[in-house]
Design brief:
Helix content: over 70%
Strand order of the largest sheet: 1-2
Largest sheet: 2 strands, antiparallel
Number of strands: 2
Radius of gyration: 33 Å
Number of helices: 35
Strand content: under 5%
Oligomer: single chain
Shape: flat
């Protein structure tokens, strides 16, 4: 469906022309990048057009298409809304927004958009198909069927319409109408397994086992890949006493779907009836491991454990059942038999007496069981929801666990559907002053600031400073260069001990060889000589922050998993608290001296995040964004902070914006939040 949508949108958008020569070239490059599935790069080009001509609808629509291709439906919805505000007579904007809204479960709004798109293009079958899909999801099966019939009217050669109608009618529990539709579908496509499959299910529901069995045979003959067909035929084979065929069906169902608890359960019962108790226990083990609330499977497993003499396991399973149903007589009797088997006759008699007590006073214990059930519901549902809400960070981590590595057909890099690659929940690091900043794969935050530019202009004899948050890995030769610079600056300071800039530059050199203590000593001296030295306060805060991080890493085992997590420094002892206070003071002093230095707010946000003070972190990132509305890293880290605050809506919005601005790992996180 996404491919159909994507191709259609490109055709629809082809009619656009900005009419502005100076943006045509940028737009065409962006379109070419989009055509060749270089979605991240195309967004960068459309961003440029929007900055130059913010009143044009076209770049917003194309950027929305790119975001849809990356799974960023929230961002795509916002872009299409921007396009519609600029030009409300563009059908593709409504279609794209409807498609995006469909994927974030805004079904009613999506229907409104598809209706609007159809006003401009009433015979567009792709829009009709999407509207039908959304109508079904929006609990309007009649409307969905109307759209399917309209689709067929406009496209008489379309196949599978009767199947879709029959499927919806079955969901409506109109089995008579569903059978009529499926009969038509099977006549039109007699070798399609799905028609036989769903018709067989209807016949099973109607207790017409003979016809159901015939249809399942045909579904299997036509290579059905649906495990349910084999499970249901297995059930019918059991009823016909064809146990070997039933066992073969369950085996095939498990091969097709190794996680099917229903297949394991049915195979376990069949094996038990055939006397294969140990393998039956193995199957039922898989069922209760996947679903601990399947007490019927656990009960059957316990009985089999009694049978094979595994009394300890049987007692354990019966006790699990009694924890949920404390007055369940068969469990007491089962434990009694297990205790008897272990030679503990006295205990066995006690359990039999308990069972007898419940049977003789069944009305009383029935009322008690009902009361227990009510208390369990009250205890398990609302209280737990209040005490332990869904943790978005835990959900993200769980979605990443054991995930198969996605192989991008374009290899490593940022081309293609990169949202399918697994990105770790790793924060963007602090911005620091450096001599060498790496080239980013995509454009990021503008790192120019008048404060740094002015400082470089006043110190032309030294290398120009840059600001970055991704440091270049230094070679041995470069490290030796820094040691040489330290020696040179030390000699200069012997003659000019009151030069704050020389202390500052030597502090940078010390920091680049990771001698943070010496670096901080020099920064202290620079600030002592020049109390309004904003860059010195900023750098001192960064180095003290690094010292805290290294201290935290040294106190715990450092693994790749630790490296990929958000940097968190424990706020425990008094010394650590003092260090936090000193760092905050330096960032605040930097801001006081240079109120528009957004990087100080960003780093301050990171400090708050390391303290797990996510609300204050959000506030600091917001201030950085206020100063620089295109501060990609601030959007990204604010988005992750929103995750820790369980604010999915704002997290998705911020991550979408950071992806738009070049942090392409955001799209992987957005995708997992939508799963």
């Amino acid at each position: 469906m996404k491919k159909i949508f994507y191709t259609l949108l490109l055709l629809l958008c082809a009619q656009f022309s900005s009419g502005q020569w100076n943006t045509d070239r940028i737009m065409n490059i962006g379109k070419n990048a989009l055509q060749f599935e270089d979605y991240v790069l195309s967004i960068q080009y459309f961003n440029q057009v929007i900055k130059i001509k913010p009143y044009l609808a076209e770049p917003y629509i194309y950027r929305g298409i790119a975001k849809i291709s990356l799974g960023d439906y929230t961002g795509a919805e916002q872009d299409c809304t921007e396009a519609i505000e600029r030009n409300p007579f563009v059908p593709q904007a409504y279609y794209a927004r409807g498609f995006a809204r469909k994927n974030i479960n805004k079904f009613q709004e999506a229907i409104v958009d598809f209706n609007k798109a159809l006003e401009f293009s009433p015979e567009n079958t792709d829009i009709i198909a999407n509207r039908g899909e959304v109508r079904e999801k929006n609990n309007d099966p009649e409307g969905a069927i109307d759209d399917l019939n309209l689709y067929r009217k406009l496209n008489p050669k379309a196949r599978g319409i009767d199947y879709e109608i029959g499927r919806i009618q079955l969901a409506m529990k109109d089995t008579v109408a569903a059978l009529v539709s499926l009969d038509k579908f099977i006549i039109s496509d007699s070798t399609n397994a799905t028609g036989y499959s769903i018709r067989a299910l209807i016949k099973m529901l109607q207790k017409d086992e003979k016809s159901a069995f015939e249809d399942y045979n045909k579904a299997v003959a036509y290579k059905s890949s649906y495990s349910g067909d084999y499970i249901n035929r297995g059930i019918l084979n059991v009823q016909r006493n064809k146990f070997n065929q039933a066992l073969s069906d369950y085996n095939e169902a498990i091969r097709l779907d190794p996680k099917s608890t229903l297949a394991y359960y049915n195979r376990g019962l069949l094996r038990a009836n055939l006397g294969d108790s140990n393998n039956a226990i193995g199957d039922l083990d898989k069922v209760v491991a996947a679903d601990s609330t399947n007490y019927e499977a656990r009960l059957q497993k316990a009985y089999l454990e009694l049978k094979v003499g595994d009394m300890t396991s049987a007692i354990r399973d019966f006790n699990v059942i009694l924890k949920k149903y404390p007055f369940f007589v068969p469990a007491y009797l089962g434990i009694a038999d297990a205790k008897q088997g272990l030679g503990r006759k006295k205990e066995a008699n006690q359990y039999r007496n308990l069972a007898s007590e419940i049977v003789n006073n069944k009305d009383y214990y029935k009322r008690k069981q009902n009361l227990v059930a009510k208390n369990q519901i009250a205890k398990e549902t609302p209280v737990n929801e209040l005490i332990k809400p869904v943790n978005l960070v835990e959900k993200f981590t769980a979605n990443n666990a054991g995930e198969r590595k996605y192989e991008n057909k374009y290899g490593e890099g940022v081309r293609g559907e990169i949202q399918n690659s697994v990105a770790n929940l790793k924060d963007e690091r602090n911005f620091e002053l450096t001599y060498n900043a790496p080239n980013a794969e995509t454009s990021r935050t503008n790192t120019y600031h008048p404060l740094i530019s002015k400082f470089n202009g006043e110190n032309t004899s030294m290398s120009s400073l840059k600001i970055a948050n991704d440091m270049v890995v230094q070679s041995a030769e470069q490290i030796n260069t820094h040691f040489a610079a330290i020696n040179r600056l030390t000699e200069q300071l012997k003659n000019t001990a009151d030069n704050s800039e020389l202390y500052f530059f030597r502090a940078l050199e010390f920091s680049l060889v990771q001698d943070y203590t010496s670096a901080i000593d020099d920064l202290n001296k620079a600030i002592e000589l020049r109390s309004n030295f904003a860059l010195a306060y900023f750098t001192r805060a960064n180095l003290r922050f690094k010292q805290l991080e290294y201290q935290s890493i040294n106190q715990s085992e450092y693994t790749q998993e630790t490296k990929n997590k958000v940097s968190v420094v424990p706020v425990g002892d008094e010394n650590t608290k003092i260090q936090y206070e000193l760092i905050l003071r330096d960032y605040d002093k930097t801001i006081d001296l240079t109120p528009d230095f957004s990087f100080a707010y960003f780093n301050k946000g990171n400090l708050y995040r390391s303290m797990k003070n996510f609300k204050s972190a959000v506030s600091s990132y917001s201030k950085a964004i206020e100063i620089d509305p295109d501060f990609a890293e601030s959007y990204y880290n604010r988005g992750i902070s929103h995750l820790y605050l369980n604010d999915k809506k704002n997290a998705t919005r911020d991550l979408s914006k950071s992806g738009e601005l070049g942090i392409y790992q955001s799209y992987s996180i957005i995708k997992r939040l939508q799963e």
